[in-house]
Amino acid sequence: MSIPATRTISFLPTPARLPLMWRIYIGLWLAYVLLVALVVQADQIMAGRFDPSMVFYSLCTTGPPGVVLALLWPLTGWMDARGLRGAARFGLHLALALGFGLCTHLLLVATMGGKARPLSWHAWPLMYSLMIYALVAGTFQTVRANAAAQRQALAAQQARTMLVAAELGALRSKLNPHFLFNTLHSIIALTGRNPAAAETALFQFSDMLRYVLDTERAGVDRVTLDAELDFVRDYLELEALRLGERLQVAWDLDPDAGDHLLPALTLQPLVENSIKHAFNPHSRPGLLRIASRRDVDQGVLRLSVSDVGPGAARAAVDASPGLGLRTIGRRLELDYAGRAALTVNTRPGAGFTVTVTLPLANP
């Protein structure tokens, strides 16, 4: 029959398990014990003599107060939990400080042999004990206050993060139905004039829909620029079935920028905006230009969509009820914390250009 191995269970914390605050507290108090031992025999040390027994004496007189003052840590926690403030907290600390000072002074008198001493001899040690109490209590209260402030700051940051995530989700939910509705409307308009082209458009649209659904299902809002451009190409091919030769596209792409990550559905709404305002109302051909450029010196990626349509006054752009530009601008503001921007350059008769500036270092 084998004897099971025994295991020692210790209920005392080892130094490695002690929190940093307590390691500092114990270290400072031991240093204080040694300092007292040196001070009380300063004259002997100057004469070249050192009595090690004074270290034990110092430990007997200052060690118990150090253990008692450690109880101020749970006491300050209890005060915080009970909501003691102002006069109530001060009164309790004052009573405890006086009791602590009296007890430590009686301990000192006992270790000194109980000899008669002048009144001033009793006053200074008592005041010193009160100051030690105030120092330890104030330190513990400061540590608790800082910890509470950090918890509040963390909770506030988490709340802000959740709020931003919720708003981003709401903005994405606005963009996706907006895209789906407008694309389906274009296909419906095509069915009456060219049923075969409408059938082709539906297959094209299914590929686009898969891109949107895969992005939503994965829960990842970032796609590469190449993936976003492929999506835009599919969209333009679908629109070309409806617009025919009226839609002319010029691509000016930086070959080194294709792997840069950006929020999904960043470019397509900009292209859709140009199709709506520069191509749909007119029967003449128009040019749509899509460009990307990396600026390593400034650490940004610039994406632009421009057309040679009628343009618009800035006031009209700001007052427009459309979702596309406004929603993308808000997404960039939230997603990049002010490090991204959407700018519009237009005037009546001078076309319409939208530029998106993103940091090269993705958040």
Secondary structure blueprint with pairings:
Blueprint lengths: L19 H21 L1 H5 L6 H18 L1 H11 L3 H26 L7 H73 L3 H24 L3 E3 H19 L3 E6 L8 E3 L4 H12 L6 E10 L4 E8 L6 H6 L4 H12 L5 E6 L5 E8 L4
Parallel strand pairs: 2-4
Antiparallel strand pairs: 1-3, 4-5, 5-7, 6-7
Helix pairs in contact: 1-3, 3-5, 4-6, 5-6, 6-7, 6-8, 6-11, 7-8, 8-9
Question: Could you characterize the architecture of this molecule?
Answer:
With 363 residues, the chain is α+β, with helices and mostly antiparallel strands. The chain has 2 domains: 20-154, no CATH class; 192-359, Histidine kinase-like ATPase, C-terminal domain (Heat Shock Protein 90, 2-Layer Sandwich). The chain has helices spanning 20-40, 42-46, 53-70, 72-82, 86-111, 119-191, 195-218, 225-243, 268-279, 314-319, 324-335; strands at residues 222-224, 247-252, 261-263, 286-295, 300-307, 341-346, 352-359. The protein is rod-shaped and about 115 Å long. Residues 1-15 have low confidence and may be disordered.
Short précis:
With 363 residues, the chain is an alpha+beta fold. The protein has helices at 20-40, 42-46, 53-70, 72-82, 86-111, 119-191, 195-218, 225-243, 268-279, 314-319, 324-335; strands at residues 222-224, 247-252, 261-263, 286-295, 300-307, 341-346, 352-359. α1 packs antiparallel against α3 and α6 packs parallel to α8 (225-243).
